[in-house]
Amino acid sequence: xxxxxxxxxxxxxxxxxxxxxxxxxxxxxxxxxxxxxxxxxxxxxxxxxxxxxxxxxxxxxxxxxxxxxxxxxxxxxxxxxxxxxxxxxxxxxxxxxxxxxxxxxxxxxxxxxxxxxxxxxxxxxxxxxxxxxxxxxxxxxxxxxxxxxxxxxxxxxxxxxxxxxxxxxxxxxxxxxxxxxxxxxxxxxxxxxxxxxxxxxxxxxxxxxxxxxxxxxxxxxxxxxxxxxxxxxxxxxxxxxxxxxxxxxxxxxxxxxxxxxxxx
Length: 264
Hints:
Blueprint: H1 8-18, E1 28-30, E2 41-44, E3 51-54, E4 64-69, E5 74-75, E6 78-85, E7 95-102, E8 115-124, E9 135-140, E10 143-151, E11 160-168, E12 175-183, E13 190-196, E14 199-206, E15 209-210, E16 213-225, E17 233-243, H2 246-249
Parallel strand pairs: 10-15
Antiparallel strand pairs: 1-17, 2-6, 3-4, 4-17, 5-6, 6-16, 7-12, 7-17, 8-9, 8-16, 9-10, 10-11, 12-13, 13-14
């Protein structure tokens, strides 16, 4: 049986970890301003260096999360440092996502090694195979690629693969503000509307994901390298939101309460 590259023991580990995943509301804003990783599932981190809240580089407010991926940081058969948003929205329901990403000027993965910055991952029944992400943002050789997959059953080798959009990456050292409106359909037509910097980026309507998904895909933020790396990779993510409108998740807006300066 194709188990998506996972062993029986790994499936058992995931089953045990599900009990400890954080729970929350259908709408969420996780901007790291509390100085912690509260609200995220942290079981895809190799160590404390993998994801750290810091205040030197941030998009909005005063803090953001610094991700570091080191050679040998293999978690669940992948070279990764990821935070998972636990929530699986219902199928056939429009959901908006927004977040900001910054790749430093020295961000330099090896040639032909893609690095996933964010992805939505299938949620098939535990024990079923895990497939390629139905939507992922990947940095590759100076460009951004937005890719996905479709099949009847979650598989490490899906029947259909998509490249929704490709483009040169914005200059390193600048924030990228992403917004996505997604409708995942288990049996019908799925849809994506993507925005970058408040402007339309691409749209898609068609089959997406895997028909054996028991829940709508969940979201992961961080770094995931497709091949070996010789040096650490560092990136920053900030201002993640999930909600019911563009305005509710727009990462360029400051969601924290703005305090009025006291008058002397």
